[in-house]
Amino acid sequence: HVQLVESGGGSVQAGGSLRLSCAASGYTYSRYCMGWFRQAPGKEREGVAAIWPGDTRKYYADSAKGRFTVSQDNASSTVYLQLNGAKPEDTGMYYCGIPTPIGCAKRPTSYPYWGQGTQVTVS
Description:
By secondary structure, this protein is mainly beta. It has strands at 3-7, 10-12, 18-25, 34-39, 46-51, 58-60, 68-73, 78-83, 92-98, 113-114, 118-122. The protein is globular.
């Protein structure tokens, strides 16, 4: 069955960096887009970044442009999110997800598969 496991979250001071990982299993990883979302307490889940198969395209939310980098390693079925220049407003639970075939970089409702999340706290 499909499984997504995030890791790499933690506490960081403003201006610092973190590298989040999402290990995928249970399906043919290289055929699907992967997305990163985050959710702050009391707020809706919002898209942060997405990456298409073969790195043919990458998407970044305006809040992530210039600071976050999404990448992937097909050999290990892992997608990464590098956070640089962290800001307090980046605080939240970060999730990776697999969208429907036409759902990449779209709303969370287009993502039927999610990991359990990893917490990022920026102070």
